[in-house]
Amino acid sequence: MKKKSFIIAALVLMCVLMVGTKAYADTTTFSVPKVNLSVDNSTSPTDYVDNIKILILLTVLTLLPSIIIMTTCFTRIIVVFGFLKSALGTQNAPPSQVLVGLALFLTFFIMMPTYTQINNTAVQPYINNQISQTQAITTGEKPLKTFMLKQTYQKDLQLFLEEAKITKKIPNDQIPMHVIVPAFIISELKTAFIMGFLLYVPFMIIDFVVASVLMSMGMFMVPPAMISLPFKLLLFVMVDGWYLIVKSLIISFS
After folding, report:
1. Do the beta carbons of residue 175 and residue 145 sit within 8 Å?
2. 19-42 as b/e, with b when 16 or more CB fall inside 10 Å?
3. Residue 125: other Cβ atoms inside 10 A
4. Nearest partner of 209 among 194, 191, 227, judged by Cα
5. How far is CA 49 from CA 42, 45, 59, in A?
6. Contact, 172 vs 149, CB < 8 A?
7. Closest to 90 in 3D by CA, of 241, 229, 192
8. What are the pLDDT digits (tens) for 202-211?
């Protein structure tokens, strides 16, 4: 009985809603609101240009992390630090945030001469309305191209030149950025892997020695990594490892 009463009440409610909706639709007319787009009530072309410049600047800021990673020495530094952490066998020491922060500050230190040159020859003249935006971009690319080409293997650069159908020999400052950047990245990865391999060798020797000693003593159940880790840390501290690695990274870009 209760079930039938519930069904009847539901049907009555649906009828009321349908009637009310139809009556509302008959007495109400819907209109699409008008939308007016404006940029700070700009009245002159200069105002529009300034607003567009701000929009471009905000867009560049969103791509800034990728630009820093792909066109600076950050890639080589962070990859070498990753190999070092893996070779030592430490999982959370030092933390990844510390390594990334150190890599960023080393990047700023190494790239400072290039950034200073870009600022003096392109950014400041453009801000002072001495050169146009196109001239500023062209002038600012030259120091960055010089830095990247200095670290790029000729074989890698030639690969992208051929794939871009650039067969004639052109000056370095006229090579497009879309050719230089990928060649620079794979060259940086190659150099970083070479440095990482050289970092692995002494720590790998310690692992072999510890594993051989444990095997000769019949201690098969003891993980060699647990015994070799203190010796690797001791070796790294005794030779002042951080000083040597950071010095090697800085010299590799000189």
Report:
1. yes
2. eeeeeeeeeeeeeeeeeeeeeeee
3. 17
4. 227
5. 10, 6, 15
6. yes
7. 229
8. 888 888 888 8
Q: How far apart are CA 243 and CA 186, in angstroms?
A: 26
Residue bearing tokens 């060699």 = 224
Residues in Cβ contact with 245 at an 8 Å cutoff, skipping those fewer than 6 apart: 80, 84, 199
> What is the value of pTM for the model shown?
0.73
Length of the chain: 254
- Would you place residue 223 in the very low, low, confident or very high pLDDT band (cuts 50, 70, 90)? confident
- Residues in contact with 55: Cβ distance below 8 Å, sequence separation at least 6, in sequence order: none
pLDDT surpassing 50 at residue 27:
no
For 54-77, letters b (16+ CB in 10 Å) and e give eeeeeeeeeeeeeebebbbbbbbb
